[in-house]
What we know:
This protein has a single domain, classed as Gcn5-related N-acetyltransferase (GNAT) (Aminopeptidase). It is an alpha+beta fold. Helices cover 28% and strands 24% of the residues. The protein has helices at 22-33, 48-51, 87-95, 99-106, 115-122, 175-189, 204-212, and strands at 68-72, 75-81, 130-137, 143-153, 160-166, 194-200, 216-219, 225-231.
Amino acid sequence: MANKNQGAEPRRQRVVRKRRSPHQSAHRARARHAVKPPPPAPVAPFNPFLAFPPAPPPQEDPRALEPREVMFGGQPHVLRPLGPADEARLISFFNSHTGETIRQRYGYQISEMTPERARRLVGVDQLRDVALGVFERAPDGEQVLHAVGRYLLDATGKSAEAAFVVRENKRGLGICTALLRALLQVARTRGMSFLGAQVQADNAPMLGIFRRHGGRVKPIPGADAMEVFVPTAPP
Protein backbone atom coordinates (compact mmCIF):
# COMPACT_ATOMS: atom_id res chain seq x y z
CA MET A 1 0.00 0.00 0.00
CA ALA A 2 1.45 3.28 -1.02
CA ASN A 3 2.03 6.00 1.56
CA LYS A 4 -0.54 8.66 0.90
CA ASN A 5 1.92 11.35 2.00
CA GLN A 6 4.50 10.26 -0.52
CA GLY A 7 5.68 13.17 -2.66
CA ALA A 8 4.06 15.73 -0.38
CA GLU A 9 6.04 18.70 0.93
CA PRO A 10 7.18 18.07 4.49
CA ARG A 11 5.51 20.11 7.12
CA ARG A 12 7.48 23.01 8.55
CA GLN A 13 7.89 22.91 12.26
CA ARG A 14 6.66 25.94 14.05
CA VAL A 15 9.38 27.69 16.01
CA VAL A 16 8.17 29.05 19.29
CA ARG A 17 10.39 31.88 20.54
CA LYS A 18 10.50 32.71 24.17
CA ARG A 19 9.60 36.30 24.76
CA ARG A 20 12.04 38.33 26.82
CA SER A 21 10.77 40.14 29.83
CA PRO A 22 10.90 43.96 29.71
CA HIS A 23 13.55 43.83 32.43
CA GLN A 24 15.84 41.61 30.33
CA SER A 25 15.40 43.76 27.22
CA ALA A 26 16.24 46.92 29.10
CA HIS A 27 19.30 45.31 30.66
CA ARG A 28 20.61 44.21 27.26
CA ALA A 29 19.97 47.61 25.77
CA ARG A 30 21.91 49.28 28.54
CA ALA A 31 24.77 46.80 28.06
CA ARG A 32 24.96 47.61 24.34
CA HIS A 33 25.12 51.34 24.96
CA ALA A 34 27.36 51.24 28.05
CA VAL A 35 30.61 53.18 27.77
CA LYS A 36 33.58 50.85 27.97
CA PRO A 37 36.27 51.96 30.46
CA PRO A 38 39.51 53.08 28.89
CA PRO A 39 42.42 50.60 28.96
CA PRO A 40 44.75 51.01 31.92
CA ALA A 41 47.59 53.42 31.38
CA PRO A 42 51.02 51.82 31.02
CA VAL A 43 53.03 51.78 34.24
CA ALA A 44 56.17 53.88 33.97
CA PRO A 45 59.37 52.05 34.95
CA PHE A 46 60.63 52.82 38.44
CA ASN A 47 63.21 55.60 38.42
CA PRO A 48 65.05 55.94 41.75
CA PHE A 49 66.40 59.36 40.77
CA LEU A 50 62.79 60.61 40.70
CA ALA A 51 61.39 58.46 43.50
CA PHE A 52 63.80 59.50 46.23
CA PRO A 53 64.58 63.02 47.47
CA PRO A 54 67.84 64.39 46.12
CA ALA A 55 70.86 64.42 48.39
CA PRO A 56 72.41 67.74 49.40
CA PRO A 57 75.51 68.90 47.52
CA PRO A 58 78.56 66.73 48.20
CA GLN A 59 80.33 67.63 51.42
CA GLU A 60 82.96 65.09 52.41
CA ASP A 61 82.83 64.18 56.11
CA PRO A 62 86.18 62.70 57.21
CA ARG A 63 84.57 61.36 60.38
CA ALA A 64 82.36 59.02 58.32
CA LEU A 65 85.31 56.70 57.68
CA GLU A 66 86.96 56.96 61.07
CA PRO A 67 87.24 53.66 63.00
CA ARG A 68 84.70 53.41 65.80
CA GLU A 69 83.87 50.89 68.47
CA VAL A 70 80.46 49.24 68.29
CA MET A 71 78.81 46.62 70.47
CA PHE A 72 77.30 43.47 68.98
CA GLY A 73 76.00 40.64 71.13
CA GLY A 74 77.41 42.37 74.20
CA GLN A 75 80.96 42.23 72.82
CA PRO A 76 83.07 45.15 71.57
CA HIS A 77 83.83 45.26 67.85
CA VAL A 78 85.48 47.82 65.60
CA LEU A 79 83.87 49.14 62.41
CA ARG A 80 86.50 50.62 60.12
CA PRO A 81 87.60 50.81 56.47
CA LEU A 82 89.45 47.84 55.03
CA GLY A 83 93.08 48.37 54.13
CA PRO A 84 96.03 46.55 52.54
CA ALA A 85 96.95 45.02 55.92
CA ASP A 86 93.61 43.14 55.90
CA GLU A 87 94.45 40.93 52.91
CA ALA A 88 95.09 37.77 54.95
CA ARG A 89 92.10 38.52 57.20
CA LEU A 90 89.81 38.73 54.16
CA ILE A 91 91.10 35.40 52.82
CA SER A 92 90.51 33.75 56.22
CA PHE A 93 87.03 35.31 56.36
CA PHE A 94 86.17 33.97 52.91
CA ASN A 95 87.43 30.49 53.82
CA SER A 96 84.93 30.43 56.70
CA HIS A 97 81.94 30.82 54.35
CA THR A 98 79.58 27.98 53.62
CA GLY A 99 78.53 27.30 50.04
CA GLU A 100 75.16 28.89 50.77
CA THR A 101 76.80 32.08 52.03
CA ILE A 102 78.88 32.30 48.86
CA ARG A 103 75.77 31.80 46.70
CA GLN A 104 73.83 34.47 48.59
CA ARG A 105 76.70 36.95 48.34
CA TYR A 106 77.92 36.38 44.78
CA GLY A 107 74.99 34.62 43.09
CA TYR A 108 77.30 31.81 41.97
CA GLN A 109 79.93 29.55 43.47
CA ILE A 110 83.48 30.86 43.94
CA SER A 111 85.91 28.21 45.08
CA GLU A 112 88.79 30.41 46.21
CA MET A 113 89.70 33.90 47.35
CA THR A 114 93.08 34.34 45.68
CA PRO A 115 95.64 36.78 47.12
CA GLU A 116 95.29 38.90 43.97
CA ARG A 117 91.52 39.19 44.38
CA ALA A 118 91.82 39.86 48.11
CA ARG A 119 94.41 42.56 47.43
CA ARG A 120 92.01 44.33 45.07
CA LEU A 121 89.11 44.10 47.51
CA VAL A 122 90.99 45.56 50.47
CA GLY A 123 92.94 48.11 48.44
CA VAL A 124 90.03 50.15 47.05
CA ASP A 125 90.22 53.91 46.71
CA GLN A 126 88.08 54.90 49.72
CA LEU A 127 87.60 58.40 48.30
CA ARG A 128 85.67 56.87 45.39
CA ASP A 129 84.44 53.45 46.53
CA VAL A 130 83.93 52.30 50.11
CA ALA A 131 84.88 49.00 51.79
CA LEU A 132 84.12 48.62 55.51
CA GLY A 133 84.77 45.74 57.85
CA VAL A 134 83.61 44.72 61.31
CA PHE A 135 86.42 43.27 63.43
CA GLU A 136 86.67 41.59 66.82
CA ARG A 137 89.91 41.28 68.77
CA ALA A 138 90.86 37.68 69.47
CA PRO A 139 92.53 36.56 72.73
CA ASP A 140 95.93 36.60 70.97
CA GLY A 141 95.40 40.24 70.01
CA GLU A 142 94.70 39.55 66.32
CA GLN A 143 91.75 41.30 64.68
CA VAL A 144 89.25 38.82 63.27
CA LEU A 145 87.10 39.99 60.35
CA HIS A 146 83.42 39.09 60.81
CA ALA A 147 81.62 41.16 58.16
CA VAL A 148 82.17 43.31 55.10
CA GLY A 149 80.00 46.02 53.58
CA ARG A 150 81.05 47.85 50.45
CA TYR A 151 79.77 49.94 47.60
CA LEU A 152 81.15 50.40 44.11
CA LEU A 153 80.51 53.69 42.35
CA ASP A 154 78.90 53.33 38.91
CA ALA A 155 80.12 54.94 35.72
CA THR A 156 77.88 58.00 36.15
CA GLY A 157 79.20 58.77 39.62
CA LYS A 158 75.62 59.41 40.77
CA SER A 159 74.86 56.04 42.37
CA ALA A 160 76.66 52.95 43.62
CA GLU A 161 75.99 49.24 44.09
CA ALA A 162 76.27 47.89 47.62
CA ALA A 163 76.99 44.35 48.86
CA PHE A 164 77.27 42.72 52.27
CA VAL A 165 78.40 39.47 53.84
CA VAL A 166 78.38 38.51 57.54
CA ARG A 167 79.95 35.49 59.21
CA GLU A 168 77.29 32.83 59.82
CA ASN A 169 77.60 32.73 63.62
CA LYS A 170 77.49 36.54 63.85
CA ARG A 171 74.16 37.07 62.14
CA GLY A 172 71.12 38.51 63.86
CA LEU A 173 73.20 40.93 65.96
CA GLY A 174 72.62 44.05 63.85
CA ILE A 175 76.00 44.00 62.11
CA CYS A 176 74.60 44.26 58.58
CA THR A 177 72.29 47.09 59.65
CA ALA A 178 75.25 49.02 61.06
CA LEU A 179 77.23 48.53 57.85
CA LEU A 180 74.30 49.63 55.68
CA ARG A 181 73.76 52.78 57.72
CA ALA A 182 77.47 53.62 57.55
CA LEU A 183 77.46 53.23 53.76
CA LEU A 184 74.29 55.31 53.40
CA GLN A 185 75.85 58.07 55.48
CA VAL A 186 78.97 58.18 53.31
CA ALA A 187 76.95 58.04 50.09
CA ARG A 188 74.75 60.93 51.22
CA THR A 189 77.71 63.15 52.12
CA ARG A 190 79.05 62.42 48.63
CA GLY A 191 75.87 63.63 46.96
CA MET A 192 74.11 60.31 46.21
CA SER A 193 70.37 59.98 46.87
CA PHE A 194 70.29 56.16 46.90
CA LEU A 195 72.31 52.96 46.82
CA GLY A 196 71.44 49.96 44.66
CA ALA A 197 71.94 46.26 45.33
CA GLN A 198 71.16 42.86 43.86
CA VAL A 199 69.85 40.28 46.31
CA GLN A 200 68.95 36.63 45.82
CA ALA A 201 65.16 36.29 45.86
CA ASP A 202 65.25 33.80 48.75
CA ASN A 203 67.46 36.00 50.95
CA ALA A 204 64.58 37.23 53.11
CA PRO A 205 66.70 38.64 55.98
CA MET A 206 68.69 40.91 53.65
CA LEU A 207 65.59 42.06 51.79
CA GLY A 208 63.95 42.81 55.15
CA ILE A 209 66.87 45.03 56.20
CA PHE A 210 66.64 46.99 52.97
CA ARG A 211 62.87 47.41 53.27
CA ARG A 212 63.18 48.68 56.85
CA HIS A 213 65.41 51.43 55.50
CA GLY A 214 62.89 52.50 52.86
CA GLY A 215 64.22 50.26 50.10
CA ARG A 216 62.19 49.62 46.96
CA VAL A 217 62.40 46.06 45.63
CA LYS A 218 61.62 44.77 42.15
CA PRO A 219 62.31 41.41 40.44
CA ILE A 220 65.05 41.09 37.86
CA PRO A 221 63.47 39.51 34.73
CA GLY A 222 64.92 36.10 33.93
CA ALA A 223 66.91 35.87 37.17
CA ASP A 224 66.22 34.47 40.61
CA ALA A 225 67.22 37.78 42.16
CA MET A 226 65.79 41.13 43.17
CA GLU A 227 66.98 44.64 42.46
CA VAL A 228 66.88 46.96 45.45
CA PHE A 229 67.12 50.74 45.72
CA VAL A 230 67.67 52.26 49.19
CA PRO A 231 67.41 56.04 49.79
CA THR A 232 70.31 57.67 51.59
CA ALA A 233 67.90 59.93 53.48
CA PRO A 234 66.31 58.26 56.54
CA PRO A 235 62.75 57.07 55.76
